Amino acid sequence: MIKLENVTKVYKTGVRAVNNMNIDIGEGEFVYVIGPTGAGKSTFIKLLYREEKASSGKVIVAGQDVSKIKNRKVPYFRRNIGVVFQNFRLLPKKTVFENVAFTLEVTDTPKVQIRKKVRRTLELVGLEDKANAFPHELSGGQQQRVAIARAIVNSPKVLIADEPTGNLDPDTSNEIIALLERINEVNHTTILVVTHDKEIVQKHKKRTILIEDGCIKTDTSVGGYVDGIH
Amino acid sequence: MEFISCIRNLPKHCKTAFQNIWRNGVMSVSSIFAVTITLLLISVIGVIAINIQDMTYSIEDSLTIYVQMDREISDEEAQKLLPEIEAIDGVKTATFSSKEEELDKLIEMQDEDGKALFESYRENNPLGAAYVVEVNDAQQIDAVTEQISTLDHVNQATSGGESTHALVNSLETIRNGGAIFVVGLTIIALFMIANTIKMTITSRQTEIGIMRMVGASNWYIRLPYMLEGIFIGLLGSLIPILVIYFGYTWLYSGAVDLLPAMLSLREPFPFIWQCSGIMVALGCGVGLIGSFVSVRKFLKF
Ligand SMILES: Nc1ncnc2c1ncn2[C@@H]1O[C@H](COP(=O)(O)OP(=O)(O)O)[C@@H](O)[C@H]1O
Ligand SMILES: [Mg+2]
After folding, report:
1. What is the C-alpha separation between B37 and B44, in angstroms, rounded?
2. Does a structural domain hold residue B290?
3. Residue B119: pLDDT band by 50, 70, 90 thresholds?
4. How many whole angstroms from B79 Cα to the centroid of ligand 2?
């Protein structure tokens, strides 16, 4: 589902954020990406949804060579990928329902379908009674659920979450991770979670990739050993 | 393909645009207000300038050359000069007036006694025939007068001399000054509107980022903003149109008895509709282009 071959990303500033990275993530996998601040985790996932372009190497996501996608086609490519951020990034002037529906509206989904899918997704994330609330009326955990609902409502093949629990307390964080696990099980979505939170990684054991200085230091799937997460 | 989908979604985009205007409350009101103020300024100054222009033109149109023919020659002979006068560069019309008509005009201007006195000249008319000549461009009046003076049998050609010359020059200055002022004001105003719109859109940079993240195509993002710009322009032009409509009809009905015909204001209709049309076009056009340009900056990859 996700494949990187000798990928390097050098920013205009000269910072080498990703350095000759190789990785292979299969369909339906649940993977943690961990590592210290500035290690290149965000850059790595930005390469996946074409927020940044690789300087060299090959990035393949959902069967498409990402660096070969024309600018004009990027929006269509992004419809294969759901993205969730630490700061939720909801549209503040839209209701919960509208925020989630937005993903479907841009793809010209018929209205009846939109209503059905949004309702089902809100049920999945446990927010069916907040459909008409505005983001600022919700708690952080609830806002993140809306963001997750928006990311998965169009059944993307891949869901990427960049520190989704960074702004949440431990209990809420656990709920969010449990939700992501459920989505992984129910929808068989490939899920990548970038996190700082060692408790989460230890509690919900999954394949874990440690990135340091733009390189993959360890990968539990290839016999790596992650212990002293700083 | 992408464009067709946008057209199909136009009602939805319109709804989004209205929703954005409504939910952005203060920001929208301030944009609409900026459009209102600038259009009001443009329209009031513009209407004044246009009317002053009209007046200067009608003053200029009233300037004519009075050509007196030698009194010895007959009407028939004097009339032969008509093609020659009309052939002069810059002459718009030349109207012949016979000796008889000249005397009529003279008598018309006298009081009762004078009328009787001049009536006695009817048998042996001492006046010569005359032409009243209109010119295309008031600036040329001196040159044309001079040329006519040199023609055969012309006794005298007068245009009011220096004072006319000075008047024409000052009218020209008023017109040019007014035009420059209005154009300058319009450009400043348009920049103001465009800038306000740019501010409202810059404040929604994150919003655009989110739309792109969920896979909205560029046109899908752009269209609601462009419509929003148009609607803001439209809403902003409402008050100026009302002001012009009621203000100008009121001014016109008040001025119609006060001002001499030469200085009369332009007929309110279709003038008001033309002004309104220009204002709507300005408001919407600037709104549309302003938002298009502002959004474009955030749509680069
Ligand atoms: N847009 C950018 N331009 C230049 N340098 C950047 C940019 N984004 C990130 N970097 C740099 O790249 C490195 C990796 O950053 P990032 O991928 O955000 O790390 P992480 O998410 O692991 O904290 C850092 O040194 C950071 O300063
Ligand atoms: Mg990061």
Report:
1. 11
2. yes
3. confident
4. 97
